[in-house]
C-alpha cells in the first residue's frame, strides 16, 4: 500500500451530479492510502452536494469545501490555502468530469518526484459516458489532430517535457511560489499557470503512461459553450502575457474569418464559396471516417462536432479580443 499522506487531492466542482460519483469512487483508494481528498464546490444546485454527502459515508476522509467564487481556479487555490498541511508536498488536481484508473494519485506523485519536475501533465482520453451518438463521435474526433490541433495531452502517446498539458500533479512549493492559479480565470487557468511556471524556471513533464478518461459533453449546445469558454480563456492568457498565438490556435480563427468573408462576398463573386465548400468537404470526410472507425452511423456526427469546436473556439477567442480592445 502506497503512503500518500503527503498528497492533497483537489477536485473543483459545480453542478456535477451526474459525474461526481464516478470521479470520487475512482479516487477512493488514494484516500484510504492517506491522501487528503477535497471537493471545492462552487454552489451546486443540481444534487451534487447531496451526492457528496452520500459519498462521504462511503469514502472515509472525503471533505467538501465551499467555493463562493465558483470558479475552478479559485476553488483549487482555496483547497491549498485551507487544507494543505505541513505534511503535504504534492497537489493532485482532478476533474469531476473524469474517471481515474486505480493508483492514479500514487503514480502521479511518484512520477513527479522521480522527474524532479515542477508539474506533471497526463493525456486525456475522451469517452462517451452518456450513451449519446453525438458524444461518441465528438470523443473520437477531439483526440485527432483535426480536433485538438495535435496537443500532446489530447490522446497523446509520447512522454516528454511540454510547455502545457492537462494538470495532474504540481509540487506545492512551486504552486505557492508563483501564487497558484489566477482566480480571475474561468477557463484556461492551467495554461496561464504554465506560462508563469515556465517564467519562474519550472518544467512540466507529460507522462503518457498515466492516463485518464474524460467524459465528453453530450450535446452540441454543451460542447459549444465549453469551446466558446476555451477560446475566451486562451485569448485572455495570450493578452495577459503578451504572447503570440501558436499556428494551431490561429487556424480556427483564420478559418472562421475566411468563411465569413466568403459568404459575404458570394453574392457578387461565387468563387468565394470555394473555401467554405472545401471546409464542408473536410467535415464530411471526418464524419465518414469516424463512422467507419466506430462502425456505427453515429460517427456521422463527427463533422458537426468538429465544426462546433472550431467555430465556437474561434468565436470565443475573437469575442474576448474585441472586448479587451474596446476596454
UniProtKB/TrEMBL annotation:
Q: Which UniProt keywords apply?
A: Cell membrane, Glycosyltransferase, Membrane, Transferase, Transmembrane, Transmembrane helix
Q: Which InterPro entries match?
A: Glyco_trans_2-like, Nucleotide-diphossugar_trans
Pfam families for this protein: Glycos_transf_2 (PF00535)
Location in the cell reads: Cell membrane
TM regions (residue ranges): 250-269, 275-292, 299-321
* Membrane is among the record's keywords: yes
Q: Provide the Glycosyltransferase 2-like domain boundaries.
A: 9-129
Q: GO CC: one term?
A: plasma membrane
Cited Gene3D superfamilies: Spore Coat Polysaccharide Biosynthesis Protein SpsA, Chain A
Record keywords: Membrane included? yes
Any single GO molecular-function term of the entry would be: glycosyltransferase activity
Main subcellular location of this protein, as a coarse class: membrane
PANTHER family for this protein: GLYCOSYLTRANSFERASE, GLYCOSYLTRANSFERASE 2-LIKE DOMAIN-CONTAINING PROTEIN
Output this protein's name: Glycosyltransferase
Native organism: Algicella marina
Organism lineage reads as:
Bacteria, Pseudomonadati, Pseudomonadota, Alphaproteobacteria, Rhodobacterales
Amino acid at each position: 500500500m502506497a503512503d500518500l499522506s503527503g498528497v492533497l487531492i483537489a477536485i473543483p466542482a459545480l453542478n456535477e451530479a451526474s459525474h461526481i460519483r464516478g470521479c470520487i469512487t475512482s479516487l477512493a483508494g488514494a484516500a484510504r492510502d492517506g491522501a487528503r481528498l477535497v471537493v471545492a464546490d462552487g454552489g451546486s444546485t443540481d444534487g451534487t452536494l447531496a451526492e457528496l454527502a452520500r459519498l462521504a459515508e462511503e469514502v472515509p476522509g472525503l471533505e467538501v469545501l465551499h467555493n463562493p467564487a465558483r470558479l475552478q481556479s479559485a476553488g483549487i487555490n482555496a483547497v491549498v490555502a485551507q487544507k494543505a498541511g505541513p505534511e503535504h508536498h504534492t497537489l493532485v488536481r482532478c476533474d469531476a468530469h473524469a474517471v481515474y484508473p486505480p493508483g492514479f494519485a500514487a503514480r502521479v506523485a511518484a512520477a513527479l518526484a522521480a522527474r524532479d519536475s515542477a508539474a506533471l501533465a497526463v493525456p486525456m482520453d475522451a469517452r462517451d459516458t452518456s450513451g449519446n451518438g453525438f458524444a461518441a463521435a465528438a470523443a473520437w474526433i477531439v483526440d485527432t489532430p483535426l480536433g485538438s490541433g495535435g496537443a500532446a495531452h489530447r490522446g497523446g502517446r509520447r512522454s516528454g517535457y511540454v510547455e502545457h498539458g492537462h494538470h495532474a500533479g504540481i509540487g506545492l512549493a512551486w504552486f505557492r511560489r508563483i501564487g497558484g492559479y489566477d482566480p480571475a480565470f474561468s477557463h484556461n487557468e492551467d495554461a496561464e499557470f504554465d506560462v508563469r511556471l515556465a517564467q519562474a524556471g519550472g518544467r512540466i513533464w507529460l507522462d503518457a503512461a498515466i492516463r485518464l478518461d474524460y467524459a465528453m459533453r453530450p450535446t452540441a449546445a454543451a460542447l459549444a459553450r465549453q469551446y466558446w469558454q476555451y477560446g475566451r480563456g486562451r485569448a485572455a492568457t495570450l493578452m495577459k502575457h503578451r504572447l503570440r498565438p501558436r499556428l494551431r490556435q490561429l487556424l480556427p480563427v483564420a478559418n472562421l474569418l475566411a468563411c465569413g468573408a466568403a459568404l459575404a462576398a458570394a453574392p457578387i463573386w461565387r468563387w468565394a464559396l470555394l473555401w467554405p465548400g472545401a471546409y464542408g468537404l473536410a467535415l464530411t470526410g471526418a464524419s465518414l471516417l469516424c463512422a467507419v472507425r466506430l462502425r456505427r452511423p453515429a460517427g456521422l456526427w463527427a463533422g458537426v462536432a468538429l465544426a462546433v469546436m472550431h467555430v465556437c473556439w474561434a468565436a470565443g477567442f475573437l469575442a474576448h479580443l474585441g472586448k479587451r480592445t474596446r476596454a
